[in-house]
Amino acid sequence: MNEEMYIVVGAVASVFGLLTLAQCLFVVAQQRLGVVERFGKFVRIAHPGLNVKIPFIERVAGRPNLRVQQLDVQVETKTQDDVFVHVVVSVQYFIIPEAAYQAFYRLEDAASQIRSFVFDVVRARVPNIDIDDVFRKKDDIADAVKNELALVMGDFGYGIVKALVTDIEPDARVKAAMNEINAAQRLRQAAAEKGEADKILKVKAAEADADAKALAGRGIADQRRAIVDGLRESVDEFQKSIPGASPQDVMNLVLMTQYFDTLKDVGASSVTNTILMPHSPGALSDISAQLREAMITAQQVGNPREGHLARHLEE
After folding, report:
1. 254 Cβ contact partners less than 8 Å away, ≥ 6 residues apart
2. pLDDT tens column, 288-297
3. Whole-angstrom Cα distance, residue 243 to residue 176?
4. pLDDT at residue 95 above 90?
5. How many CB atoms lie within 10 A of CB 302?
6. In whole angstroms, what is the distance from residue 121 CA to residue 116 CA?
7. What pLDDT digit, counting tens, does each position of 244-272 carry?
8. Cα atoms in the Cβ-side hemisphere of radius 13 Å centred on 267
9. CB-based burial, 193-229: b 16+ in 10 Å, e otherwise
10. What does the pLDDT look like over 173-218, one tens digit per residue?
C-alpha cells in the first residue's frame, strides 16, 4: 500500500513538475514581442525566442505585432465647389520596438485612432480644394495625413511608413459631366488642328498653283521668243535663197504652213475641242491678215523688241 502511494505521489509530482516547467517557459515568435506582467503589473518586454517567467506569478499579457500593417480608410467629404467625393486613404503603420510599452498600454485600438485622424485631416483639407484640383493634389493630401499621424501616433509608440490616397470617387453624375467636358475640349482641339491642317494645305496648294503659273508664263515667254528668233532667221534665209522675196511673202508662207499643220493635227485626233474657221481660198487671205495683225499686236504688248521685229517683218 505504501508503494502504491509512493507511485501516485511520484506521478502527481511529475505532472506538477511538468506543468510548472510549462509555466516557466514560453516562446515569442519572430517580429513579435511578449509583454510580461506580474500580478497584473508590467514587468518587462520579452523578445523573440525562448523566454522564462515565474510560474503562476507572471504571465504573458500580450504579443504585439511588429510587422508593418495597412489600414484603408474611406472618407466622404465635400470639395470647395460643393461636390461630394469618396476619398480612400491607405495608412501603413507599425509598432516601434523601443516604444512597445506605450503601444500596448496607452492605446487600446490603434486602428480606430488612426481612422479618426485620417477623417479629421481629409475633411479639413479637401473642402478647400476644387474637384479638378483634388486629383492633382492627392499627394499633398497624403503628405498632410502622414505628417499629422506621425506627430500624434509617435507618442503612442506607433510609426507611420506612408499614407497614400489610393482612390478618389466623385458622384457618378459628376464623373459623367467631367468626362463630357473633357471629350468636348478634345473635340474642340481636334477641330482646331484639322482647320489648321486644311489651312496649310490650301496655302501650299495656292503657292504651288502660283509657282506653276509663273513657270508656265516663263515657258510661254521663252516659246514666243524662240518663235520670233526662228521667224527672223527664216526670213533672212528665205530672202537670201530667193532674191526678190519680201517679208510679206515669207509671213504668208509661214502662216500657210502652220495652218495646214493645224489641220493635220486636228484630223489625227478623234477627240478635240478645236473650232475650224472658214478656209476657202477667198477667206484664206483674210485669215492670214488677221493672224498677222494679232501676232504684231501681241508682240508689241509683250516685248517692245519683238514688236519692232514684227513691224519690220510687216514692212
Report:
1. 231, 234
2. 666 667 667 7
3. 98
4. yes
5. 15
6. 9
7. 666 666 667 666 777 777 777 766 766 66
8. 6
9. eeeeeeeeeeeeeeeeeeeeeeeeeeeeeeebeeebe
10. 777 777 777 778 878 888 888 888 888 888 888 888 888 888 888 8
8 Å CB contact between 226 and 233: no
Query: pTM score, two decimals?
Result: 0.53
Identify the pLDDT of residue 24.
85
φ, ψ dihedrals at 243, nearest 5°:
-65, 145
Residue 74 has pLDDT above 60, yes or no: yes
Predicted local confidence at residue 309, as pLDDT:
45
Question: What's the grid cell of residue 283?
Answer: 477667206
**Any bridge partners for residue 164, and if so which?**
90
Residue 107 has φ and ψ, to the nearest 5°, of -125, 120
Q: What would the grid cell of residue 182 be?
A: 473633357
Residue bearing cell 511538468 = 18
25 with 49: CB under 8 angstroms?
no
